[in-house]
Amino acid sequence: MRRLEGRLLKVYALLFLVCLPFALPHPSRRLPGMVPILALEHILFHPSLWFSAVSADTGALEDWQPESREKRALLNLERGLQQEANPQASEPLKVRRAYGMGGGGWPDHLLLERGWSDEDSVWLEGCPVVRGQDLVGFVHVPRGRRERSELQKRGLLQVQLLNHRAPGSKIRRFAGMARSLHPKARKSDRPIRLVLGASHPKDPFPLHSLRSSPEQADTRSRGPFLVQLMESRELHPSLPDGLVLGWIRDEVYAREGCVLSRWVLPRWHPASLVQVELLGGHDKSPARGSAGTQARHPWPAPKRSKARVVWRSPGGLGYRRYLIQGNGLRAGMAILDGAYCLGRIEWAQGGIALAVPLSRRGSVLPMLWWRGPDRKVEALVLEGLGSNRQADRFRLLHPTVLDRGFLDQGLLFSGTMGSDYPAGLLITGLFRRRGRILELEDASLLDWPDMIEVSHTEGPSR
Amino acid sequence: MIGFLLRSLGLLYLSGAELLVVERTHGLAPDLSVAWVCFAALRLQPSSAWQILLPVALVRTAFFPGNLAFHLVFLLAGYLLLMSIRGFIVSERWQTQMVLAFLMALAFGTGRALLLSEDFLDPMRSSWGAWFLTALTTPGLILLAEPLAGRLRRAPTSVLLSEELPS
Description:
The structure holds two protein chains of two kinds.
Chain A: H1 2-23, H2 35-45, H3 52-55, E1 60-61, H4 68-84, E2 91-99, E3 109-113, H5 118-124, E4 128-131, E5 134-140, H6 145-154, E6 156-161, E7 173-180, E8 192-198, E9 207-213, E10 225-229, E11 244-252, E12 259-265, E13 275-278, H7 288-296, E14 303-312, E15 322-326, E16 334-337, E17 340-349, E18 352-357, E19 364-370, E20 377-387, E21 392-398, E22 411-414, E23 426-428, E24 431-434, E25 437-440, H8 443-446, E26 451-456
Antiparallel strand pairs in A: 1-14, 2-3, 2-13, 3-6, 4-5, 4-13, 5-6, 7-8, 7-10, 8-9, 9-12, 10-11, 11-12, 14-15, 14-26, 15-18, 16-17, 16-26, 17-18, 19-20, 19-22, 20-21, 21-25, 22-23, 24-25
Chain B: H1 2-25, H2 32-43, H3 46-63, H4 68-85, H5 94-116, H6 128-148
């Protein structure tokens, strides 16, 4: 018996070692298969949930309309996004979500909201996708019949981004030319010519310079260098030159200034994209007029249904959780209070769900910043740092370079993360930035009302 | 199995009570998980310890930040440490239990702060006061847990009690 007890201690030690890699790097990431157990625990703890079907006072809200102030804010966002559109592009398209893992650890695919047929696929395949003047990627029509019909059924178009590396096939290469935007730079200065390709997911930046001339150009003191697409018959004969690829980032020896490797950082982050445009196919795509109509109402208010907050985690602590009850709850849905987005659903099971604030530690969120005076819209990617009694805290992941006056005023809106978390939801107008730390100070974000709403889409989550 | 389920249910409601205390005292609530680890390591055989540690980890996963692996790692670390030193201390003495509970509460609070919180504070906002309270209450909680443990296998005490003396 004593030997058995001794062996059990070894089993405990082994279990400890097995759990360590899951516990230390990602202590908050939910383990697979845990949702039913967690839901059961909450049901046991909150007996009122046993009668949820009887007592649920929830339902769809059909006639929600934003107030005039909120309507104005949404209109401003809409106009700001229209300003960004590339005038040569054929049609603006909404981004559903970014996914995958490509060069630099960034997502390497986008899903766009656009129906297409097999006939369209002929001209859609390889069609360049841009965001304003920036080249983002290329439309990819899957070869598998099942995958194609699945995308067609859902009305989605797949885009391979510039940092995509298809296993077993050649990396797509681009010819680029980089010029300095330094105030003392002259037009006669020799540009840097580059051949670029997608980098490895573990590399620091999404695009890698395969060749550059001159190799040892000093890009640090004379920078920043903006890389634009160059005409190339061999690499990309159909692409117009001048499209922006990104900024040069060099790894150099600190003393000698010798360039070890050269990278390119795009001006956009895949997770932050909410609207892109197709370049080309003017004659085959829907008429510009109808695209314009679509662009005037790019962010219709999402359908919503009511939900009830059943339990709140104790106030004043360094974390917040809300147990909510409602119909058709799904993980990833946005929690709304009027036009404002309060948080997201972390897991859902059988009509109950655990909702977390946007600032949940470890969450990565796209947001849109309407700058205010110049009416431009900037896309941000933030990482949640948790909340204290005064504010929700985030770290800015994108953009990497912050100009003067960045996030001094304006409004914050949600970016897109699937059909259940649409772009254009108001986050707040009260925020403060300290370096790369952003604090949202709106009291309503910290104290959720008893009845809330969830963004609602028919059918399965996408 | 039924015993395990009932014990888990009991732990669930005890954790609910802990949450209520946390809510009302703001950072001065004793860390119940420390008391459970002390009880499992000092009073139970290893074959029965999992019946305490697993429900505690599951309950904390549901109501506190951190996933199941995170809570299991903390509980197992505390348990294995106590088991390895149990032979060298008189674990029945309340003073020993208080010192162990204080050190463990300190380690748990700091670990949570390092891994789960950005501003070097435990998400539970536990402070020196909470760690002292944990130390003060743990011997009493171990005594209270004895009758709750039911048919779990008890560890032999280091100071032999009269019923444990060889006849």
